[in-house]
């Protein structure tokens, strides 16, 4: 064994003062309906629900001792006390450690040291106290002796000053180098699937030693401390730049949206944003198990850590809009006025109110600007996608940005009604806020909804699709596996860190690409339209393109006539149906009386048989008499409302007219049924072919499509039967036509109103294609106008921000060199992309048809901290007063042994094995349930 190997093993053999994570209490949850296959198991995009189900169903089953895998009982109160003391001790030392971190970072930059051991082996030891401990780096682990000078306030701050973060606040014996923690931070943000345990295992492999579970706990403690120090440094930089107001990030996050210039072209929408909920980032709520095997109170371990961020909306702020939920408004007209009701999961109250009891946070609700910068995040707490979350988002955005906002939401049509009826209604109308529907979801809304909310027909919107949230979630879903069992603090910390990193390194880095691609796409649409549209207009006999606007208004007027039946016709159909029912009950009454008379003449039967027969006949006669009298009363009541003098008979014209109306209603319902199934099929096909969809989810979707195909065939047969029975017969559909439908607006043209539209120009396929192309060209021209404004904003922002930060850095260089170095790091975060942006913007200027300018403008904002203002930095110093003195006898030092920590970590392995088996059982159960459903559908068809 070499000297280095022996030294490494000796270093890792020391027992550090570590604190394990809390023991996970699990409870029982009733999933009998899922187990027997009568109810489907909700599956999110990220998965993992089977794991949660297994933990919750099995309760304490894996705590049973099985050979060598027994799990000891732990005193939670003692652990709770130790965790709180440890975090409290770290918190009190944060100012001193932050000051030490600033000094270490500046010294490292000056000396050019590549790693801790490079610095440690090359520097001369100063006089002072010695502290022996094990230092773990990414590639080395060694027991070293560090110096504590008289200037150090605590042992922890002394270690940070030398580039090591301790794993214990008072008497640390193990520390992690800042370089190793920074390596994991960046790697995890780039690939959120990388967990602490996986990274620590990687380091163990590089060290050439065996991995032990307690090493993950050590690394986690140091990593939390490192992130806390970084947040303190970021706050100091913001304060020095005079950018520490509560809404600064929100107002200045996206330069293309918010860096307003003087004398620029006024846009229809000052800012376009999209918002949506995502159920992948769930978090399990640990609960105790009561004596009656029901879920008890929360058994979450309090850590004393509270995460604050201007990106997160607090639960208190969100809950103040709970009174504005549709169910609380008492407005019964909303569902009837919204033709898209029931088409979306988040529009179905029966589903949104049914959340799993094992989760506390059931997902996140996010708002992003059209370029992808994250504006706001709200946790969805023990609920589905309730209206209070978008209401809270809109309220905050209106408070910060004011008027002229356009918000895309997949149920924007219904949300507009909710907004108007909420406490925000007057503010919404005064600030001219517009609710919109994204392009992807919009094509599954009713055609009338599309005409008012779809992006293609909204003036000033450009070619923006308002589906930015979907692209955001496709990346953020990778966080799900690491957040499922995290604490509230660690979950919010991870989500906020991810979006901050994504904004700075992904969204901002690709901002000029976004502008270039959109500009090129808009120019292509105009070039294609200018070549094709004149020929289409000539074929249609249209001389002026303004006719398309008139056609759009005519279509709106026509479809409005389909939204609600006239009250007179409704009463007539009800009267006709009651007459039919009364006729049927009259025939039944005659039949019952005849049967009663026949039964009374059976002399050969015994007396008991005659009694039973007579009683049965009498009961039947009484029932049909009651039915007849009830129908008669209803007919009489409707005759009074309709002022019918002579009761209708089948020979009357009124009877025949009402009968046709009833038949048309059945036709519309058959069409609705067919349309709804095709909607589901389109989205399942889209999801099945989407990148990132796992194999198991693809398999489930494929089975759902098989079921859906059988149901569509059955609905198609029903529709064709009803359509043929109409007078005159309606258009029938073929299977090939239905499965090729890509835009659900085609269904609306099958609906027959009181006016015949078969001959109007806008109902023909050619006219509709020409109309859509015309509006796409209008939106493309609007997009170019918006991009010209955003390009100038970005150019000006790059110039002003770089000048402002460099001037502030020069001013701080004499006042606080350490803070000036952090400001240089801050400047480089986004500044590294400026050269790329300028090159990409130059590429835009060379596009044929470019009509903007790359000449920087003048910012309209000149307040404190603004990029165009005169820099006047505020030196910020860390207060190290009242720092507690280290107390080696503190109870914080009481920690579990490595063996205890290893045993607790084995619980996850046992649980993983159990819920893996349970997953197979549930998949088989689900397969049988789907097969039974297919058989039933085949029988019905």
3D architecture notes:
Strands 5, 6, 9, 10, 11, 12 and 13 form a seven-stranded mixed sheet that branches. The chain has a four-stranded mixed sheet with strand order 2-1-4-3. The protein is globular. A hairpin with a 4-residue loop joins strand 1 and strand 2 (141-148). It starts with a helix and ends with a helix. It is an alpha/beta fold and 941 residues long. Helix 9 (214-240) crosses helix 33 (817-831) and helix 26 runs antiparallel to helix 27 (607-642). Helices cover 57% and strands 7% of the residues.
Topology:
Elements: H1 3-13, H2 32-35, H3 49-58, H4 76-111, H5 116-120, E1 129-136, E2 141-148, H6 155-161, E3 164-166, E4 174-177, H7 178-190, H8 196-207, H9 214-240, H10 248-252, H11 255-258, E5 271-278, E6 283-284, E7 287-289, E8 295-298, E9 312-313, H12 315-319, H13 326-329, H14 334-337, H15 349-352, E10 359-369, E11 374-381, H16 388-401, E12 405-408, H17 412-421, H18 425-430, E13 434-436, H19 439-442, H20 447-453, H21 468-476, H22 480-483, H23 488-507, H24 511-540, H25 547-560, H26 567-599, H27 607-642, H28 653-688, H29 695-725, H30 735-739, H31 745-748, H32 765-815, H33 817-831, H34 834-845, H35 898-940
Parallel strand pairs: 1-4, 5-12, 9-11, 12-13
Antiparallel strand pairs: 1-2, 3-4, 5-10, 6-10, 7-8, 10-11
Helix pairs in contact: 3-35, 4-6, 4-9, 4-33, 7-9, 8-9, 9-33, 24-32, 24-34, 25-32, 26-27, 26-28, 28-29, 29-35, 32-33
């Amino acid at each position: 064994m070499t000297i280095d190997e022996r030294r490494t093993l000796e270093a890792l053999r020391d027992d550090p003062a570590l604190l394990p994570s809390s023991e996970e209490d699990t409870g029982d949850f009733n999933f009998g309906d899922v187990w027997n296959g009568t109810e489907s198991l909700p599956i999110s995009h990220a998965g993992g629900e089977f794991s949660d189900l297994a933990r919750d169903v099995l309760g304490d089953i894996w705590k049973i001792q099985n050979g060598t895998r027994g799990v000891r009982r732990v005193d939670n109160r003692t652990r709770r006390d130790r965790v709180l003391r440890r975090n409290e001790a770290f918190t009190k030392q944060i100012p001193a450690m932050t000051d030490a971190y600033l000094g270490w970072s500046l010294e490292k930059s000056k000396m050019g040291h590549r790693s801790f051991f490079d610095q440690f082996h090359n520097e001369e030891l100063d006089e002072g106290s010695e502290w022996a401990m094990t230092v773990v780096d990414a590639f080395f682990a060694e027991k070293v002796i560090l110096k504590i000078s008289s200037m150090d306030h605590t042992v922890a701050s002394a270690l940070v000053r030398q580039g090591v973060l301790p794993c214990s606040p008072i008497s640390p014996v193990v520390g992690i180098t800042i370089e190793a923690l920074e390596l994991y931070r960046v790697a995890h943000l780039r690939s959120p699937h990388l967990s602490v345990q996986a990274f620590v295992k990687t380091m163990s492999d590089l060290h050439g030693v065996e991995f032990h579970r307690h090493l993950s706990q050590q690394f986690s403690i140091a990593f939390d401390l490192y992130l806390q120090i970084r947040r303190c440094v970021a706050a100091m930089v913001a304060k020095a730049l005079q950018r520490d107001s509560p809404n600064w990030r929100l107002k200045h996050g996206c330069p293309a949206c918010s860096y307003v210039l003087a004398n620029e072209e006024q846009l229809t929408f000052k800012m376009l944003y999209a918002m949506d909920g995502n159920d992948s980032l769930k978090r399990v709520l640990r609960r105790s198990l009561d004596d009656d095997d029901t879920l008890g109170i929360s058994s979450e371990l309090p850590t004393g850590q509270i995460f604050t961020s201007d990106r997160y909306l607090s639960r208190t702020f969100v809950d103040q809009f709970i009174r504005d939920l549709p169910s609380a408004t008492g407005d019964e007209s909303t569902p009837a006025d919204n033709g898209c009701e029931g088409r979306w999961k988040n529009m179905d109250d029966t589903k949104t109110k049914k959340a799993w009891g094992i989760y506390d946070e059931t997902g996140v609700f996010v708002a992003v600007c059209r370029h992808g910068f994250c504006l706001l995040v709200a946790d969805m707490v023990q609920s589905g996608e309730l209206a209070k979350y978008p209401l809270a988002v809109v309220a905050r955005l209106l408070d910060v940005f004011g008027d002229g906002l356009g918000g895309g939401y997949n149920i924007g049509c219904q949300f507009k009604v909710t907004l108007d009826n909420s406490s925000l209604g007057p503010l919404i109308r005064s600030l001219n806020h517009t609710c919109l529907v994204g392009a992807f979801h919009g094509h599954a809304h009713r055609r009338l909804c599309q005409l008012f909310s779809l992006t293609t027909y909204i003036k000033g919107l450009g070619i923006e699709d308002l589906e930015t949230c979907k692209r955001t979630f496709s990346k953020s879903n990778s966080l799900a596996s690491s957040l499922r069992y995290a604490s509230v603090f660690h979950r919010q910390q991870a989500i906020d860190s991810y979006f901050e990193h994504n904004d700075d390194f992904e969204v901002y880095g690709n901002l000029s690409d976004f502008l270039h691609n959109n500009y090129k796409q808009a120019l292509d649409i105009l070039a294609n339209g200018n070549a094709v549209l004149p020929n289409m207009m000539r074929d249609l006999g249209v001389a002026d393109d303004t006719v398309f606007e008139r056609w759009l208004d005519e279509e709106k007027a026509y479809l409005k006539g389909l939204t609600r039946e006239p009250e007179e016709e409704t009463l007539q159909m009800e009267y006709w149906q009651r007459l039919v029912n009364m006729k049927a009950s009259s025939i039944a009454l005659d039949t019952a009386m005849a049967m009663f008379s026949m039964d009374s003449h059976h002399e050969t039967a015994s007396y008991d048989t005659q009694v039973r027969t007579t009683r049965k006949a009498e009961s039947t006669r009484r029932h049909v008499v009651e039915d007849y009298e009830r129908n008669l009363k209803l007919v009489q009541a409707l005759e009074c409302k309709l002022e019918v003098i002579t009761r209708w008979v089948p020979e009357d014209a009124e009877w025949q007219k009402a009968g046709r109306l009833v038949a048309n209603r059945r036709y519309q319902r058959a069409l609705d049924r067919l349309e709804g199934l095709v909607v589901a099929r389109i989205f399942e096909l889209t999801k099945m072919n989407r990148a990132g969809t796992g194999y198991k989810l693809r398999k489930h979707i494929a089975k759902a499509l098989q079921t859906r195909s059988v149901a569509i065939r059955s609905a198609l047969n029903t529709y064709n039967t009803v359509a043929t029975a109409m007078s005159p017969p309606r258009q029938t559909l073929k299977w090939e036509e239905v499965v090729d439908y890509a835009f659900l607006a085609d269904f609306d043209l099958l609906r027959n109103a009181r006016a015949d539209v078969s001959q109007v120009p806008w109902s023909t396929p050619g006219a509709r294609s020409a109309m859509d192309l015309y509006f796409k060209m209008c939106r493309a021209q609007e997009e170019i106008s918006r991009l010209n404004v955003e390009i100038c904003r970005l150019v000006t922002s790059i110039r002003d921000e770089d000048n402002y930060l460099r001037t502030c850095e020069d001013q701080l260089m004499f006042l606080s060199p350490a803070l000036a170095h952090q400001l240089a790091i801050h400047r480089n975060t986004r500044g590294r992309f400026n050269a790329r942006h300028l090159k990409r913007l130059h590429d835009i200027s060379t596009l044929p048809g470019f009509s903007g300018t790359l000449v920087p403008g003048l910012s309209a904002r000149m307040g404190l901290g603004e990029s165009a203002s005169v820099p006047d930095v505020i030196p910020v110093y860390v207060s190290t007063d009242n720092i507690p003195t280290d107390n080696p006898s503190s109870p914080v030092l009481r920690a579990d042994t490595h063996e205890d920590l290893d045993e607790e970590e084995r619980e996850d392995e046992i649980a993983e094995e159990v819920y893996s088996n349970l997953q197979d059982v549930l998949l088989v159960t689900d397969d049988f349930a789907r097969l039974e459903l297919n058989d039933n559908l085949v029988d019905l068809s």
